[in-house]
């Protein structure tokens, strides 16, 4: 591992203090500014006074985990999460790739490794079911539990916390058979709290009649709190239905208060998949994100 | 009220026995063959040996409830449901229209009046939130409970059973803040069982990790069982994501077995909102529906 980073960036960058202390725990999930390289995203965080970043494996791979870790650490940023492991519902549980993801999260010092557990076997994310479709939802869920039995101790040995992310039920078939916070907690509770936590993502859970009770139940199982809005009408590609806070229908008040009351003290990530956001100037996106974070999300 | 129906149809039509006893409880929801008038749908049921029909208020209005009731009764059909009342989350609870829907259900002798409770105040179904958007989900849900307090006894006095339909969470903002069977049952349990039941619609509930337990809990609260499949990828208009049984990702086995075990003895409706189905020849749609009902849905 070299001390010199790609592009000849200096190894230490002073991080200016955020202008508003309410931004102290704001984290930019890298996919929100998807057009930026890792280096651009790190620079963008520094420039905008953001102290934490949620990384994606695809972007980390541009440098490799060790150099990426250095890049982020030298900029004084925390790594609020690494996205993502998972897709555990196939025949083989996808274990090798998930072990690699755990190793990367360890190298990066990420607060957690987010797991998107996968949909029904044979369904490609966003695609049509192929000939290998299994409609056995119980089996798919059992496979997640079995894979977690292997991955949780592996993560624990490396000081990595897995974060089970329940996804909105509209993604149940193709992305995650884990659909509610209650279900995620039932699964997490079988493992030590430092090994397996959950993600509370407003976009995925806002509709759930049981969500406030489940956030309270979660307590220190909450490994990540992510905020983005739910747009209506849904766009043609429902994966891109996330919006900037304030552009959709979510009331961030009760959810944020519940997460705070549950004792969560980590960063708050903004993760937005949205074609318009991706087409915009990333610096403007970050500026809007900061502004909306203050106006729409109550203090943590 | 006249004995002569529009179009001069004879007042009594002999209903041939279904060829397969497994079709005895199959009901055609009228919206599946949306291009048909009420009269055409009734004739179609008779022609195809289907003994039950789920009616829609828009179609019933073509004749008025009394004449429609006669048309259906003379064909020897049961009315498995009337769709739909609801949209209770506005300022006024939409009570007048719902009382009218109850009256229509009474006139038709419908087994239940399906209630789609409505989304967040200010969000038009399928549309964008207007200036009147309220993000107060708890308030919207409270309004449903309050409206039901008025409508349940009104329905009870007229021998009509209201059927609360939890809708898939992707419709929470614009169509129904009632998103799970557990939530529907919590609401229903505050009223006599003959006044308020629930709809179990496979499309809406298949993903729910708690669905089998909630169906068991429901017992004789189940007022309607509806089957259609969940398509992936979702079409651009998610309202039209329903498919013919076998075309999507739902395993009808466990759900149907649970509904049977819960003691449900009513009809099984096929309700499909789908642009391709609506564009097809309705007679072919009904023929396919009968075939798939036998091959994909276990005997009730």
UniProtKB/TrEMBL annotation, chains A, B:
Residues 45-281 form the Xylose isomerase-like TIM barrel domain. Residues 1-21 are annotated as: Disordered. InterPro entries: IolE/XylAMocC-like, Xyl_isomerase-like_sf, Xyl_isomerase-like_TIM-brl. Gene3D superfamilies: Divalent-metal-dependent TIM barrel enzymes. PANTHER family: HYDROXYPYRUVATE ISOMERASE, XYLOSE ISOMERASE. This is 3-dehydroshikimate dehydratase.
